[in-house]
Write a structure and sequence with these properties.
Oligomer: single chain
Radius of gyration: 28 Å
Distance between the termini: 50 Å
Helix content: 25-40%
Number of strands: 29
Shape: globular
Largest sheet: 10 strands, mixed
Strand content: 15-25%
Structural class: alpha+beta
């Protein structure tokens, strides 16, 4: 049953999606008990693939009392027992927020040990109960410690079990900052954010993070915290910390983990550079080689099975490379979600470059079991051998990566060795990358704007398209320098520059046109899952003085193929203010229509490859009609890109497209020319076929 069912009071679903949703197993329900929004964690507990599957169901149907706990009606194996905490939502008291805490593991222990039944009340128990010997034994078995936070002196009070798990000595008082200092550096930012949400705003939290014990061992903790009021009305913050390290297939258990990749446990690029520096300092450095390996069609795995399946696949490949290569080879995880590198200290011991490349290729080609499917993979491999005095480890990594790109250009499953011509090209790319960095810092780029019009030629919005006035090569289009930005890790900074500049330019368009004109910005590096996304967009809009309703953020279809919780939350944080999201190049990716239906998107942009064939290809006509009909059925607007002929325009009019963009109306124009165009709108277009 969907959120649009008759059981869902009108308007509650939209209201629920506009309010804050805790990042834990959460249900938000209307006054009549109908669930109108659920988190991904709640869906997982209930054995559902998507949170929307819980919408429209009644809380009494989902949660059935089972002694001191509640049984969650689940599609998953076994029974799911939870404790629930409910309170009126702080943004709208008519909505009820219910947080679910999975206690199935604890109830299993309770059946074996009667004293464990008292554990479910540990959060509310006084400190002296925490150390009851029988209860303590059960907590140690489960690797779960309890804690409280005293708002009076801001002291963090761990139980003796938690002290043993974390390694904090007794009876030293512990501050939150002391605890945070032991959290993995990459996790501290969001642990601090979750703590602030809990202690300042009293939002319940459930997070996982890595923790470095004093003895150097790294553990993975799942922390749950809630804020309740005691009999005197004072706020009491308490919770549990569960050591779940053993549940992870590839835990990071070594010290110095900032040099490890969190998904695979392999060395990361920083560690790879250090290792190569040592290898190249040896007398036998002429035997050092680097292989860069990229899994072909990895994005299809993500779009078909999800990001978690992608991470699972990477972990499997990491284990294969580690176990299947000789001691002279060290696999590492480098830049890119699907890239590995193999650092070889002795090419002769590995049997030579060709034999090593074949071995790596064979390890990747071995079918991998993922989520009940057997995936057949291949890899594009690039190789670089140390031959020139003065080469650094970073140089070898760059050359191997470039060779990998050349191999990929020749087809899937190919191998290519870096030669002198390719090395010279890579060096030139490094020079261009440095120039691009300088252009970003010195405001040396330009934005052109292409109008998006409706059927009568009125300009609805302008899409920002970046250009680079290169000092030697002239005005460069994005296709000439975006690959350089991607390889240099500059896409995020480029997006930030474009958004700041575009909003600043668009702020005065209303004064020229006499009505609101939208600004569309395509995002590639700055995406909703970025922790700084929502704040940056809000700060940029405020600085420009632009109305949120003018802002259209375009995301490519593959970015939304398997949206994680952070992506959904980032999108909701922006759309609640009035901004809109558009799916760019729709129909060219592999996204699920089930996921698309529930995303907070307002617009669909039909890719130009379908528009180009409207007058000659019946398949393109049928696909375009289907996209427009589907978008309208789901309440989305539809924009056609690449409209270049009057015939295409007339056909799109007949099919019911809502807006149009292309050379038929105007090319992308410098800002001053686009402003002049607004003053003379609407545009006059002959829509009659030749």
């Amino acid at each position: 049953m969907s959120a649009a069912s008759s059981e869902d009071p009108p308007g509650w679903t939209g209201l629920a999606h506009a309010v804050w949703l805790p990042e834990c197993a959460t249900l938000i329900s209307a006054p009549d008990g109908t669930v109108v929004r659920a988190s991904e964690q709640a869906a997982a507990l209930a054995g559902e693939a998507f949170p929307e599957a819980l919408a429209g169901r009644k809380l009494p149907e989902l949660l059935v009392a089972d002694g001191a706990v509640w049984r969650l009606r689940s599609r998953g194996p076994g029974r799911t027992l939870v404790r629930k905490i409910s309170w009126p939502h702080h943004e709208d008291k008519r909505l009820l927020t219910t947080v679910l805490v999975d206690v199935s593991d604890l109830t299993d222990i309770a059946e074996r040990h009667p004293m464990a039944r008292r554990f479910s009340d540990a959060e509310a128990a006084p400190a002296h109960v925490w150390d009851d010997s029988a209860l303590r034994e059960v907590q140690l078995r489960a690797r779960i410690g309890t804690w409280r936070w005293d708002s009076a002196d801001e002291a963090f009070q761990p139980s003796s079990v938690l002290r043993e798990i974390t390694g904090f000595p007794e009876p030293t008082r512990v501050s939150f900052e002391q605890y945070l200092a032991a959290v993995h550096p990459y996790d501290r930012q969001w642990v601090r954010q979750a703590w602030a949400s809990l202690t300042k705003h009293h939002h319940p939290v459930e997070i996982e993070h890595r923790y470095l014990r004093p003895d150097g061992a790294q553990r993975i903790f799942r922390v749950r915290g809630t804020a309740t009021s005691d009999a005197a009305g004072r706020v009491v913050v308490s919770g549990t910390t569960h050591d779940i390290t053993d549940r992870h297939e590839a835990p990071l258990t070594t010290s110095g983990s900032s040099r490890l990749d969190p998904v695979t446990g392999l060395f990361n690029r920083t560690a790879a550079r250090e290792l190569l520096q040592g290898l190249l300092a040896r007398p036998t450095s002429n035997e050092v080689a680097v292989l860069a390996c990229r899994v072909d069609n990895f994005k299809r795995v993500i779009t078909s099975l999800g990001h978690d399946a992608g991470d699972e696949l990477l972990a499997i490949l990491a284990r294969r490379l580690t176990d299947g290569l000789g001691a002279e080879c060290t696999p590492v995880r480098v830049t890119g979600e699907d890239e590995f590198a193999i650092l070889c200290s002795d090419l002769a011991a590995a049997g030579g470059l060709e034999a090593l490349s074949d071995r790596v290729s064979g390890l990747v080609r071995t079918p991998a079991p993922i989520r009940g499917q057997l995936l057949q993979l291949s890899a594009s491999i690039g190789a670089a051998v140390h031959e020139t005095p003065g080469e650094r480890g970073e140089d070898l990594l760059r050359f191997a990566t470039a060779a990998m790109g050349a191999a990929r250009d020749r087809g899937l499953g190919r191998v290519h060795r870096a030669d002198s011509a390719l090395i010279a090209s890579v060096d030139q790319q490094v020079h261009i990358e440095a120039q691009l960095r300088a252009a970003l810092k010195q405001d040396g780029l330009q934005l052109h704007y292409q109008p998006i019009v409706n059927s009568d030629g009125s300009v609805l919005a302008g899409e920002a398209l970046v250009r680079w006035p290169h000092p030697q090569r002239g005005l460069l289009s994005p296709g000439a320098f975006l690959p350089v930005a991607e390889r240099g890790g500059l896409l995020r900074e480029l997006d930030r520059w474009v958004l700041r500049t575009a909003l600043r330019d668009a702020a005065h368009w209303r004064d020229v046109s006499g009505k609101p004109v939208g600004i569309a910005v395509n995002l590639t590096g700055l995406v909703p899952a970025d922790p700084e996304f929502s704040d940056f967009v809000a700060e940029t809009a405020a600085a420009a003085g632009i109305d949120w309703s003018q802002l259209i953020l375009e995301l490519v279809e593959t970015e939304l193929a398997d949206p994680r919780t952070q992506t959904r939350q980032g999108m909701h944080n922006v759309t609640r203010h009035g901004a809109r999201f558009a799916i760019d190049d729709f129909g060219t990716g592999h996204s699920s229509l089930a996921r698309f239906k529930h995303l907070p998107t307002d617009l669909v942009k039909i890719d130009r490859q379908f528009v180009a064939g409207l007058e000659t290809d019946p398949a393109d006509l049928a696909l375009t009609r289907s996209i427009i009909d589907m978008a309208h059925a789901l309440g989305r607007g539809c924009i056609a890109e690449g409209v270049e002929t009057a015939g295409q325009f007339q056909t799109l009019l007949e099919l019911g497209a809502d807006a149009y963009q292309g050379w038929l109306f105007a090319p992308a124009l410098p800002e001053d020319e686009f402003t002049a165009l607004l003053a003379h709108a609407p545009l006059r277009v002959d829509c009659h076929r030749a």
